[in-house]
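Q: Here's a chain of 71 amino acids. Please give me its 3D structure as tokens.
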Amino acid sequence: QIAHVLERARADKFRAIVQQAWYPSGTSKLIADKAGAIFLQFPGYPDFAQGQSYTTYMDDLVAKLAKALGV
């Protein structure tokens, strides 16, 4: 399956590999590196304990992704 994802990433010119922070990142980093993409890791949910709302969480994700992609 990893080879298939890498093949698709190269063929479709993926610019980023995005992963939830909960999971180990080694394979995603490898795919990003081999595909010439950037690797981004985001938390899987808002930090409600720190007062982050879902809207702020989504705004943060979009801003980080846009910055990383130069948009």
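Q: Can you summarize the key feature?
A: The chain has a mean pLDDT of 94.
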